[in-house]
Write a structure and sequence with these properties.
The complex is a heterodimer.
Chain A (H helix, E strand, L loop, with lengths): L1 E6 L3 H5 L3 E5 L6 H7 L8 E5 L2 E2 L11 E6 L5
Parallel strand pairs in A: 1-5
Antiparallel strand pairs in A: 1-2, 3-4, 3-5
Chain B lengths: L6 E6 L4 E6 L2 H7 L3 H11 L13 E4 L13 E7 L6 E7 L2 H7 L4 E5 L6 E6 L2 E6 L8 H12 L4 E4 L2 H4 L7 E2 L5 E2 L4 H7 L2 E7 L9 H22 L8 H8 L21 H6 L3 E3 L9 E5 L5 E4 L1 H6 L9 H14 L3 H16 L12 H13 L2 H8 L2 H8 L9 E2 L2 E2 L9 H9 L12 H7 L7 H21 L4 H6 L5 H10 L5 H22 L33 H15 L9 H6 L3 H7 L7
Parallel strand pairs in B: 1-6, 7-12
Antiparallel strand pairs in B: 1-2, 3-4, 3-6, 4-5, 7-8, 9-12, 10-11, 13-14, 14-15, 16-17
Helix pairs in contact in B: 2-21, 11-13, 12-15, 13-14, 16-18, 18-21, 18-22
The chains are: A alpha+beta, B alpha+beta.
């Protein structure tokens, strides 16, 4: 299954990429995506699936876009 | 009394006189400083109906107990006046060395009144105040003015100054300082210009009175180091605020094409990653260890300092996706001393109004070259179009007619900051009930709405969150005075702020005391508004009508077919009023005012308006 992962702000430098297509086993969860990319969960983040909030245990579908952002307070 | 100098400097430009006026401990504890001082002084001293650009308006520069003392992000200063853009109390904050220098000179605030008879600079050095000619820099931009001042008076002097926008009384002209950025979105720069006041220069040599200076020095400097370490660990300042652009684009909250669209495939061209790659230098305010000012070379070779609000409103909102060009528009705003946010909204509204046949004109979305010319015209009030743009989007819409007010992106006359709320009800509420017009400084709840609630919800939890954030952002940080960024961005605890306050003042305040003071000040601003608009009603707290127009809903993407619903928004507004103790017009009730210690101010309001 192909998932597009987008990282926002400082996560780009922490993880070493800003956007990547990854192949995962059937029906992965958001947690599995974070784990496969070694993205730290120690600091709060907001994660969206196709632009909408997603829970960590939610099952993903082929072609989904996951965006992972730190928490901002605006500009 | 520790923590305050106990004095306000009153300067009269008409008579070229000044005096040092002491204030009481009771005044200090009730209003604290910054926005608290400014809202109370303006309520007491500027009568309703006063011409904001006349000699009877007053400009307030106000600091708080922690301002200027080394501790996380305390280099901020509040500037306030009756706004020529909105017609009632307006304010803003900016980073500047004035925050430290004015306190060292012996003042917690200054009141500038009257009108000079020629371009003037006020020079303050402790007890001495001089009125200096400003002819050499009148007509100059803020960079040239600031450089000239540094050359003549040294780089250690605190400076507030205006550019051509303020001089020509553009209604969204700001006050600038090269040690920070700009402040006073609702036309504080125009108020300076109306007084023929080009700059305020401050040097102070006294220590700021504190209960325990040694303890505060150890605490403040230690915490500055901790904040710096947190910034390095999180990497926040790699992109600073500009990471928000990609976030907003992802969740359909970006202003594109005068807020008609919420996403754009080319947005990445002007995002934080591109900005960081193009970085020339980094700047920050005094007492800041997480500097957010990223500069790039613009397409004319200037060094332009960008943040999220200006790349969104001068970039995506105008459909200009070339970073050096966006940088140039931003540079011009800074040089002329115009608010980048209002400038972006005014230009996008102009293009949209032409598109919709509300007016004639030759400006189209994406036209950076014409946008630069229009900024020049707006700053100088040049020609019919320049005069029109200089008055802001609400007055433009009223001049155009054709129902264009529906898509003039403003609330109470102040242009909307860079968040497209066509389907973000809580943030739309935050703009609607911001006490000075559509400013994001008061409350920004988009992350909360998306992460912790249903985006479709109009429930009381969103009103409660707006109030919680107003107390923190528009309240505590604006009275102390300090920058909010260490808090959410780096996870710096709010408990640190009463700790600083108590160490400096020897008081024993909790965060709850801060919230009570914040509520008092919000009510003070609402009374100020009511006195100017006694016939007001709740519709004044509605965001732009285009956000309720089903034909404006996104056709694709995460919020396809969705738009705010007016009756539900009105219900959310009522939740806010109920929780705040406001009446159905959005005005604090007599009981609320009494609880907040505002009986005398309520009695004053009742001379011209009704309270319930």
């Amino acid at each position: 299954m192909k998932i597009k992962v987008k990282l926002i702000g400082p996560l780009i430098y922490e993880t070493g990429f800003s956007e990547k297509d990854i192949e995962l086993a059937e029906a992965p969860t958001v947690e599995a995506v974070l784990e496969s990319l070694a993205i730290s969960t120690t600091r709060p983040k907001i994660i969206t699936r196709n632009g909408k909030a997603v829970a960590p245990h939610e099952l993903l579908e082929n072609g989904d876009t996951i965006a992972i952002s730190p928490i901002y307070s605006g500009g | 009394m520790f923590g305050w100098t106990g004095n306000i400097l009153r300067v009269n430009l008409t008579t070229k006189t000044y005096k040092k006026e002491p204030f009481s401990e009771e005044f200090a504890h009730k209003w604290v400083g910054g926005r608290g001082f400014a809202s109370k002084i303006l309520y007491d001293e500027v009568s309703p109906g006063t011409d904001p650009l006349g000699p009877d308006n007053k400009l307030i520069v106000a600091l708080g107990p922690i301002a200027g003392i080394p501790a996380p992000n305390t280099g901020k200063c509040v500037v306030a006046a009756k706004s020529p853009l909105t017609g009632f109390y307006g304010d803003g904050n900016l980073g500047t060395r004035v925050s430290e220098q004015l306190r060292k000179a012996g003042y917690d605030a200054m009141i500038v009144e009257g009108q000079a008879d020629r371009p003037t600079m006020i020079y303050i050095e402790d007890d001495k105040v001089e009125f200096l000619p400003a002819d050499a820099v009148w007509g100059q931009g803020t960079y040239a003015t600031n450089d000239w001042i540094y050359g003549k008076y040294g780089v250690g002097v605190g400076v507030l100054n205006i550019g051509q926008g303020g001089e020509n009384m553009n209604r969204f002209a700001v006050i600038r300082s090269m040690e920070g950025r700009a402040g006073g979105r609702p036309g504080m720069g125009a108020v300076m210009g109306s007084k023929l006041l080009k700059a305020i220069l401050v040097k102070g040599t006294h220590p700021i009175p504190q209960a325990d200076p040694a303890a505060m020095k150890a605490l403040g400097i230690g915490d500055l180091k901790k904040v710096h370490k947190l910034d390095q660990e999180t990497g926040w300042s790699k992109q600073s605020t500009t990471g928000v652009l990609q976030f907003c684009n992802e969740v359909a909250g970006l202003p594109v094409r005068n807020f008609r669209k919420t996403q754009h495939p080319d947005a990445w061209h002007i995002d934080g990653e591109r900005l960081n790659n193009a970085r020339v230098a980094t700047y920050g305010c005094p007492n800041c260890t997480m500097r957010c000012g990223i500069t790039i070379h613009d397409d004319a070779g200037h060094e332009s300092e960008l943040d999220y609000e200006n790349i969104a409103l001068l970039g995506s909102n105008l459909e200009i996706f070339d970073l050096p060009q966006v940088g140039c528009l931003n540079y011009l705003c800074d040089e002329y001393g115009l608010d980048t946010m209002s400038a972006g909204c005014v230009l996008s509204f102009y293009a949209d109004a032409i598109d919709h046949g509300a007016t004639d004109g030759d400006f189209k979305f994406g036209d950076a070259i014409r946008a630069k010319q229009l900024l020049h015209m707006a700053a100088h009030r040049e020609g019919k179009v320049g005069k029109l743009l200089a008055d802001g989007s609400l007055r433009m819409a009223r001049a155009f007619g054709h129902n264009s007010e529906a898509y003039a992106m403003q609330v109470k006359g102040l242009e909307v900051a860079a968040y497209n709320c066509k389907f973000i009800p809580g943030q739309a509420l935050a703009f609607g009930v911001s006490p000075i017009g559509a400013h994001h400084r008061e409350a920004w709840i988009i992350t909360f709405e998306i992460n912790h609630t249903t985006r479709e919800s109009y429930g009381p939890e969103k009103a409660a969150k707006v109030i919680e954030l107003q107390r923190i952002r528009g309240g505590m940080f604006e009275i102390l005075v300090a920058c909010r960024f260490p808090w959410i961005e780096l996870g710096w605890s709010l408990d640190n702020y009463p700790k600083y306050f108590n160490t400096i003042t020897s008081l024993n305040w909790t965060l709850d005391d801060m919230w009570t003071t914040a509520d008092r000040i919000y009510s003070m601003i609402k009374l100020n508004y009511l006195r100017e608009f006694p016939q007001t009603n709740r519709k004044a707290d509605y965001p732009p009508a285009v956000w309720f127009d089903p034909s404006n809903a996104d056709k694709e993407g995460p919020i396809a077919g969705k738009i705010l619903e007016l009756d539900k928004y009105d219900g959310l507004l009522q939740h806010y009023y109920d929780q705040r103790g406001y009446d159905n017009r959005g005005i604090p009730t007599k009981a609320t005012l009494s609880r907040l210690g505002l009986d005398a101010e309520a009695a004053e309001a009742e001379k011209v308006a009704t309270l319930t």
